[in-house]
Write a structure and sequence with these properties.
Elements lengths: L1 E4 L2 E8 L2 E7 L8 H16 L5 E6 L4 E3 L4 H6 L3 H20 L3 E6 L2 E3 L1 H8 L2 E5 L4 E2 L13 H8 L1 H9 L7 H7 L4 E3 L2 H16 L3 H11 L6 H15 L3 H12 L1
Parallel strand pairs: 3-4, 4-6, 5-7, 6-8, 7-9, 8-10
Antiparallel strand pairs: 1-2, 2-3
Helix pairs in contact: 1-3, 3-4, 3-10, 4-5, 5-6
Length: about 260
């Protein structure tokens, strides 16, 4: 099923127990609110759909997995309520991935920025292509990775998360991301990456749903408070994005 969105889409297909959810936006697969909403709906449906045994999350194109928050929508944010609503979109996606009883495999074919790193961290297993560098750029635009922070820190640890969050203009390469645990695998070419994804997905599709659900609950132990925590974090980002510094920084980034 394709959910058409202005300048983008979210598509979901299920074959032999494997549900592939694909998103696209022409601005380097950035995430406006409508795409975030569609991702929440599709992941929730797949998680409750009996035909789905495992989920693959991917994006279109071959250069960027996800550029994070939509700069256009950030510039349009007029008040704290609107800011909270926008950043709650990221909180909702992370939480629906966390609560989903099915294993989620992320296919990372290109660079990840900001909220894109959060999506990868919220997946249960990430398989990446060489060159899929990462960056948490939020501090450079006057906010910080408050919403995605818990997911990223959980996956790579406080020290590595701190390095990403503080040096917001520094790209870390795919081998760095693998060494810290964000990526489970890094492949030299797309063919090998997709072969590995299909192998794992097929294996899980023939596994015990009860066992995988129990494993996932164990892996995500201690995160039940995230529904409230990420909403609080979204409010912080929603307030900070209103500053003159943020508006000027985002405008400068868009001109590059």
């Amino acid at each position: 099923m394709i959910q058409q969105i202005k300048e983008g889409f979210v598509n979901s297909e299920t074959h032999q127990g494997i549900t592939t959810i694909e998103f696209y936006h022409p601005q380097s697969n950035s995430l406006p609110g409508k795409i975030l909403e569609a991702l929440v709906k599709e992941i929730h449906f797949a998680g409750t759909h009996n035909e789905t045994k495992v989920i693959i999350l991917k994006s279109s194109g071959d250069k960027t997995f996800c550029a994070g928050a939509s700069f256009d929508e950030l510039l349009e944010t007029a008040n704290e309520a609107a800011g909270l609503a926008f950043f709650s979109g990221f909180a909702n996606v992370i939480n629906v991935m966390r609560r989903c009883p099915k294993i989620i495999i992320a296919r990372i074919q290109g660079k990840c920025v900001g909220g894109g790193v959060g999506l990868v961290a919220a997946a249960d297993y990430a398989i990446a292509l060489e060159g899929s560098d990462i960056k948490l750029s939020e501090l450079a635009i006057g906010i910080a990775p408050f919403v995605v922070g818990p997911a990223v820190e959980r996956k790579i640890g406080l020290a590595a998360f701190s390095a990403l969050a503080i040096d917001a203009n520094m790209w870390r390469n795919s081998q760095w991301a693998k060494s810290k645990g964000l990526y489970a695998e890094v492949h030299e070419n797309i063919e090998n990456m997709d072969e590995s994804i299909l192998r794992l997905a097929n294996s899980l599709a023939h596994g015990s749903p009860e066992a995988m659900h129990s494993l996932k609950k164990t892996l995500w132990a201690g995160t039940d408070h995230w529904d409230q925590l990420l909403k609080e974090r979204a409010a912080i980002s929603g307030r900070l994005i209103l500053s003159d510094f943020s508006k000027a920084a985002i405008t400068k980034f868009k001109r590059k």
